[in-house]
Amino acid sequence: MGRIYNFSAGPAVLPEEVLKEAADEMLDYRGSGMSVMEMSHRSKVYDGIIKEAEADLRELMNIPDNYKVLFLQGGASQQFAMIPMNLMKNKKAGYIVTGQWAKKAYQEAKLYGEAIELASSADKTFSYIPDCSDLDIPEDCDYVYICENNTIYGTKFKNLPDTKGHTLVADVSSCFLSEPVDASKYGVIYGGVQKNIGPAGVVIVIIREDLITEDTLPGTPTMLKYKIHSDNDSLYNTPPAYGIYICGKVFKWIKKMGGLTAMKEHNEKKAKILYDFLDESKLFKGTVEKADRSLMNVPFVTGSEELDAKFVAEAKKAGFENLKGHRSVGGMRASIYNAMPVEGVEKLVEFMRKFEKENAE
Ligand SMILES: *Cc1c(COP(=O)(O)O)cnc(C)c1O
C-alpha cells in the first residue's frame, strides 16, 4: 500500500521527507546509538535538538527577542484555561467567538473571571468573520482573544481586530506557519502542532516576556504557570521530546521550501484551485463568505446529505481520505495544510469533476 492523500483536519499530513528522515534516524540518532525517544531530555544531544528547533522557529517567524518560545503539553485545549489563569489580572477578558474552538475558550475563561463576548458570528453558523474594527472593549480588559483560523468552519481573520491597545491572544493551531506573521502584534500566539507542524502532544506558545509573571490566579497549578516553563526553557519536567524533534524537522523543511513567504504562495495556489472549482461547480459549493475563506480548511457541500455521504465514500475508495466534515456541521471539508502537495488538490478537483458529471441530474 502506498500513501494516500490525507485531508484530515488534525492530526494531519506531514511532509514525506520528514517522515523518511525520522525513519532513518529511528534506531540510531546520528551516532548516539539510540532513538530520540530513548534519550534523556537533559542530555547534550537532546539539548541540541530543542535549541535548534527553537532557533529555526524564531528565524522562520522572525520572533522578536522579547518573546519566549515554550514547548508545552496538554493540547491547545489546555491553553483555554492556562491563558486566563496567567493573564486575567483584572479578571476580565474579551472573546471574539467565531466557531467552536473560540467558544470553548470563551466558556473556559468564564471559570476564572468575567469573559465578555465582544463579537460573534454564531448568527450565521460561523460562516464569516465579524467586523472587529471598532469593538466596544472595556478599559480594564486583560486581553482580547481570537481563534485566528477556524478549523471546523473554514474561516480566517484576514485583518487582526483592533484591540485598542489591549493584548491580543491568538489560537493559531490550524494556520501556524502557513504564511508570514508579524509576531509583535500579539501578546500570545499559540497552537497545538498536530494540524500543521508535527505530531499531537506538543503545544507551542509564543509569549511576550512582560506577560510572564508570578502573579497568576490563586490555585494555579505549577505546571500551568508560564513562568515555570519559561524559567526552565521548557524543561521544567520531561517535555514531549520526540514530538519536539519532529517539529524541528518540519521547521527545517519549511526553511528549505523558502520560508513562510513561499509557504503562503504554495498554500494560496492550492486553495485557489479548490475554491475556483467550488465557485464554478453546479454540484459542490463552499459554505463561507468568500472574503473570509481559510487557506487551510475548505468546507463544502452538495446540498444533499445522501450525495455528501456518497462522495465521501467514493473519494475514500479513490485514495482521498478524511474528507468528511466535522461531526457538528456535516458536509465535507478538505484540510490542505502546508504538507499537502499541489498535486493532491489537483487530483481531488479532478475527482470532484468526475463525480459531478456522474451525478448530474
Ligand atoms: C484542533 C484545535 C484545537 C484543539 O486542539 P487540542 O490539541 O486537541 O486541544 C483548538 N483550537 C483550534 C483552532 C484547533 O484547530
Helix content: 25-40%
SSE-based structural type? alpha/beta
In total, the number of strands is 14
Biggest sheet details? 7 strands, mixed
Outline type: globular
Poorly predicted segments = none
Count of individual helical segments? 9
Summarize it:
With 361 residues, the protein is α/β, with parallel strands linked by helices.
Notes on the protein architecture:
By secondary structure, the chain is α/β, with parallel strands linked by helices. It has helices at 16-24, 44-61, 75-87, 100-109, 226-231, 241-257, 259-280, 305-317, 342-358; strands spanning 5-6, 67-72, 92-97, 114-120, 143-147, 149-150, 155-156, 167-171, 188-192, 203-208, 285-286, 297-301, 320-321, 332-335. The strands form four sheets. A seven-stranded mixed β-sheet has the order 2-10-9-8-5-3-4. A hairpin with a 4-residue loop joins strand 6 and strand 7 (155-156).
